[in-house]
Each structure stands twice: as C-alpha cells, then as structure tokens.
Task: structure prediction
Amino acid sequence: MDAKPISRFPVPELKDLPADVRERILAVQEKSGFVPNVFLALAHRPDEFRAFFAYHDALMEKQGGLGKAEREMIVVATSGANGCQYCVVAHGAILRIRAKNPLVADQVAVNYRKADITPRQRAMLDFAMKVALDSGAVGEADFEVLRAQGFSQDDAWDIAAIAAFFAMSNRLANASSMRPNDEFYLMGRVPKG
Result:
C-alpha cells in the first residue's frame, strides 16, 4: 500500500523545526507511541502551531465542571456534524479511552441523540451543536436548559469555546485534507492485553 500524504500542505522534517515545536512533538510521540498527524501538519507554520496548541490545551486539559471525556464528546459530536474525518477519528479514540467505553465515540459521531449518554450530556451536546452550526440562534433559553442540568456559567463558556475552537479546527483539517493516523482506529476499542 502506498503511503498517502497527511496534508496537502508541506510537512516539515522534525530536524528543521524550531526547538520548542520539535520538543512538543517528541513529547507527544513519547507519550502516545506515535506522532498524531495534526502536529506534523500544523508544524509548517510554527507561530500558528504554538497558538493552536496553547488554546487547545487551555480548553481540553483544564479542571472544571466538564470531565475530560465530556470535553472529547463535544469534539466528536461537533466534528461529525462538520464532516471532519480527522477530528472524529482522532478524538473518537481519545473519547473511547477517557470514557472507558468502546462504543460511545461512534454513537456520538453518528447521532448523539441516540447514543448511550446521560440526559445531562445530551443537553451539553445540544448546546455545543447549536454553537457549532447555528451560533446566531443561541439565546437565554439555551443557557436555562444547561442550568437545569447542573451546568455553571463557566461550564457553558467551556462548552461553547470547545465547539467554536473545533469548528475552526474542523475547517482547517478539511481544507488541508489532514489524514488521521491509522493508530487511532483501534485505540480504546479492545482491552489492552
């Protein structure tokens, strides 16, 4: 099988990258055992790479009312709606691992309304999808639904920010034809043994 390009844009060699960008990529490789293609695809624009991952980390790695699996659930649902193969596959793998559930990512990506999730998570995803697909229609009633499910104002911000950030990410991944790593497809589907 011929190796397919991971992006339609240039992908630099690690040795040619600024030290901080190279170190970040090598740290991810050390942790996961491979380099997710998003790191390589964005590395040809180091300033944008730094900004992208700084905001990504601020949203996805913080403590708060949303659990890490719920944050990934937002990414998978909105990325599915935005037709982003890279984010559905990559974040689907992370969701399966963080939720300790091999089924949830596929369910959420295809139709979260029929997924095996809680009413609280469904309300979270309803709001995230509205932000991702029809943000001009977001109103006070949407926040009332979130409050009724126990979400704080900060949680609502986080849901909106994750949906908005990944809407941008989805469009960039689609425009660049970013290819998901093969490793993502099996992650979290079967117990390690």
